[in-house]
Amino acid sequence: MSWKNFVLRLGVLGVLFVSTGSCSIPGQLHTEEETVTRVSMIVKMDHGDYWNTVKMGAEVAAKEYNVKLDFLAPKNENDYKGQIALMEQATLQGTDAIILSASDYMALAQVTDQASYHGIPVLSMDAEVASTKVKTYVGANNYEAGQKAAERLVELTGTEGQIGIVNFVKGARNADQREEGFTDYIARFPGLKIVDTLYCGSDEELANILTRTMLAEYPEIKGIVALNAEASIGVGKAIDYLHKGGKVKLITFDNPPEMLEKLQKGTVQAMVVQNPYSNGYLAVASAVQLAEGGSIPERFDTGTKLIDLDNMLWPDNQKLLFPFVK
Amino acid sequence: MRFWRVLFQPFSRFHYKKIQVIITLSFMLVTIITVLLVSIMLYNRFSKSSEENTVLNIGQIIDQVNSNLEFYVLGMKDIFQVVEESVGNAPLISGEQLRSQLGTILKTRQDLVSIALFTKDGQLVWNTPNEQMRPNSRLTRQGWFEAAQEHPGLLQFSAPHIQNVFKSPYRWVVSMSKEITYTDGGAKKKGILDVDINFRTIDELSKRVSLGKKGYVYIIDGVGNMVYHPQQQLIYAGLKYENLEPVLNYQYGNYTDDSTGEERIITIKTVQPTGWKVVGVTYADEIMTTKKDLNTFMIGFLLIMLSIVLIVSVLVSYRIAKPLRTLERSVKKVEKGDFGAIIDVSGAYEVEQLSKRFNLMIRRIRELMDQIILEQEAKRKSELEVLQAQINPHFLYNTLNSVTRMAEMGRKEEVVTTITSLSRFFRISLSKGSNIIPVQDELEHIRNYLIIQKIRFKNKFQYAIEAQDEALSCMTLKLILQPLVENAIHHGIEMMVDEGFIGIYAWIEEESLFIRVTDNGIGMSEDVLRGILSGKSRQDSGSGVGVRNVHERISLYYGKPYGLTFESELEEGTSVTVKLPVVPASAESDHGGSA
After folding, report:
1. pLDDT tens track for A65-108
2. Quick one: pLDDT at residue A167?
3. What is the predicted pLDDT for the residue at B291?
4. How far apart are the C-alpha atoms of A75 and A78, rounded to whole Å?
């Protein structure tokens, strides 16, 4: 082969060599701009302190793990159709992971399977969904939370008497589990009787009216448990309206500020508080791990706390109860 | 495939002593060492200064936060002092004047939430804005209240907490509290003065600070309570951990902490009036970004340099080694006997010269070889002729013919002489196969020849043979004179009318042996002379050994300067001189054998 030919070939090879080298170098130079993970978080409702706290936690994790977070929710907690639409939209647009807090245990199952079929891992947060494709659950152990509430209520009412339950949405996994935990615990005491179980559909006013009706129907009721924030507010209003504060023991769920006022006032004896901030944070952190192909535990129990007058001002509880500095 | 073969050709038959390999490897080695040294030096220099700069920057940011906070807190402290003075000087503690005065103060600063005075057992004396107290606030057990009681006369700053005393919305506040003395209904009383500041300003001030991408600032109070932390909830939930122990030991300064598994640089400043500590957390891997960038740059640089050097050195070494290899191949060809190979190697000057010299050498060798071939051929031919001359059948036939005739005529004497001469002639002709004989023998040989010829030609000529004594003992090729004499007889004497004369002389002159054959015959024309010398004109009746043969034999045997010279003039005669080296009889053996 001729000299010139050789030079030409060597030149080509050199260019290849250098260019492959330099291709890999910019990649290394920009390691700080790691690939952004896209995570869609679909929750039950686009307002309320609870969901805002979830969002706050999720945003902290998003910053930490370089995530582009899409926070999506229908206007209303009952609107599982809206959630289905959001799930479909997220699946269609493509994202690295979906975090779902299902309004309905069964109704969301199909879209969850669909997303999973498209290779998008789905995590459930706060409330589970009836799909085996879900990679993990991040949230409180709702059954245990129900039992916790029951335990405190029994302490307050004694082991004899009538008890009422105000639940929110029949069919929502967390609602069902809380109720189940609660009734299972109460069932240990034959003297205690659950006289009524109401579903307010996360509507404060409906809860208020239904509670008044229940109390009118069963005036002997010694204790009521309200299984989510809206139910709690409604029940609290009803008890205050009937001036039965303290007489009817009330255990509530979640921590809207008005309920804390009622705790100080004595209408509410204790509240079961979840950790929405941790839920949001852990859900996003886990989603990142999943999207990167890592494996994560099947469940993250972020725990619940029983807050009463004695411990409400503990510094860590203050931050839990009042996540926002206003 | 060919492509790769070209590049890796130098290494295909890898031999570490190949020029190409040596050059390539040494180039690479030198480059690697140089680049590495430079890289390491630059790396150390840059990374050190960038690290120092970063630490300095963080320190400045924290200082800024700290001074902002201090400024803010001092402002609040001033307000508290004004409030305290107003309260202390007020003659009537629940009077309208004091209330409006404090109301004005409250309005000047938006982040003042409330001002309140409590008795030492927690009863509200008054408050601004005028709001009802919540039940079950347990204020006497709250930090700010207890601290004020514990440290009478000293202003206390509380950690941020939820204001749950009054029926205003729950708010995060920092309480400034102090035990003061006030006048109520003429009596001096002790109470706790509490000014609540909205925590939002501090929160936002701290939230805005970012140290790198992941770094942050947090604030703790003197005993380790969280004042502000961007991930406070995660810490309370146990998902994150902040190692506070060393922080509490520092007033200011920085250290490296790896209790969370990641290396982090912690910078601490203390806000003087409150005892709070502003703590900056920077992730070491972010500081080291420049270091990492540098690293990758260096690696890239090294790779590029190496590939360039690899290419250049392969090229250069190829350029140097290729002509050498071509040269080697050509030499190998020559070694195998192909002298036709012409090396046309271009390249470095030295190599070009080498190939030129080599070409010259090859040409010379080729010439010499051709010459040797020619000489060998000539030698063989002349030897064959000499062999023939030794037998010389023509001459024998003629002579015997004459002898027969003489015998018939009864010339007994002449017959005897002729036969005797003939026998001597042949004895010397053969001379035991030796090629070199003494001049004496050669002269004896020619004498016998002349005797026979004289009888044959019926005394048509006379002859004389004279030689120096020194010449007689020299050695000469045999049978060199006979053709000359034969030539003299044929071309000179035979055609003559008069009696001819042939003279043969041998002498030594100027280190050479000369033998001359002269005749006084008709001489030779130029044509004839040329014919004799070219060997074409050869009489069939002759001895068979031409004059030319004589000349060739002499010059082949003794070298170019030796041979025959002719002098001839028409009608005057011809003289042929044989020039030979002086070879004494004893030295003869040195020359022997080759013929």
Report:
1. 889 999 999 998 888 899 999 999 999 998 999 999 998 899 99
2. 93
3. 67
4. 9
Residue B5 confidence class, pLDDT cut points 50, 70, 90: low
Q: Is the pLDDT of residue B536 over 60?
A: no
Q: What is the mean pLDDT of residues B57-66?
A: 88
Token duo for residue B130:
């005028």
Distances (CA, A) of B592 to A299, B246, B432, B558, B580: 115, 113, 14, 11, 15
Based on the fold, state whether residues B280 and B301 are members of the same structural domain: no
- Nearest-Cα distance to chain A for B164, in Å, is 9
Phi then psi dihedrals of residue B506, to 5 deg: -130, 130
Rounded Cα distance, A139 and A50, in Å = 13
Judgement on whether residues B280 and B293 belong to the same structural domain of the protein = no
Q: Cα–Cα distance between B242 and B236 in angstroms, integer? A: 10
Q: Which of B169, B202, B235 is the last residue of a domain?
A: B202
DSSP, collapsed to helix, strand or coil, labels residue B20 as helix
Whole-number Å distance between alpha carbons of B316 and B592: 58
In B337-421, beta strands by DSSP E: none
Structure-token match 């008044």, residue found:
A212
Residues 249..308 of B with a Cβ closer than 8 Å to A: which?
289, 292-293, 296-297, 299-300, 303-304, 307-308
B134/A265 CB distance under 8 A: yes
Mutate to test the interface with A, among B166, B170, B200, B344 (most CBs of A within 10 A): B170
**Helical axes B439-456 vs B412-430, angle rounded to 10°:** 150
Q: Residue A114 is part of which domain span?
A: 37-140+275-302
Asked if A32's CB is within 8 angstroms of B232's CB, the reply is no
Q: Which amino acid is at A17?
A: F
Judged by DSSP in three states, B168 sits in coil
Question: Own/partner pairs for A2-11, CB < 8 Å, 24+ apart?
Answer: A3/B319, A3/B322, A5/B6, A6/B6, A6/B318, A7/B315, A9/B3, A9/B6, A9/B7, A10/B6, A10/B7, A10/B311, A10/B314, A10/B315, A11/B311
Q: How many CA atoms lie within 13 Å of B310's alpha carbon, on the beta-carbon side?
A: 18
CATH of the domain at A179: 3.40.50.2300
User: Would you say residue A5 lies in a domain?
Assistant: no
Q: Do B304 and A7 touch (CB under 8 A)?
A: no
Range of the domain at B32: 2-61+289-333
pLDDT-derived band at B274, boundaries 50, 70, 90: confident
Q: Tokens at residue B394, please?
A: 């023509």
Please tell me the pTM assigned to this model. Answer: 0.64
3-state SS of B262-298 is CCEEEEEEEECCCCEEEEEEEEHHHHCHHHHHHHHHH
For chain A, the domain total comes to 2
Whether B172 and B309 share a structural domain: no
Residue A42 bridge partners (DSSP): A72, A100
Of B137, B160, B293, the CB nearest to A29: B293
User: Is the domain of B517 the same as that of B471?
Assistant: yes
Average pLDDT in chain A = 87
Sign of the dihedral defined by the CA atoms of residues A315, A319, A321, A326, in that order:
positive
Instruction: Count up the domains in chain B and report the number.
Output: 4
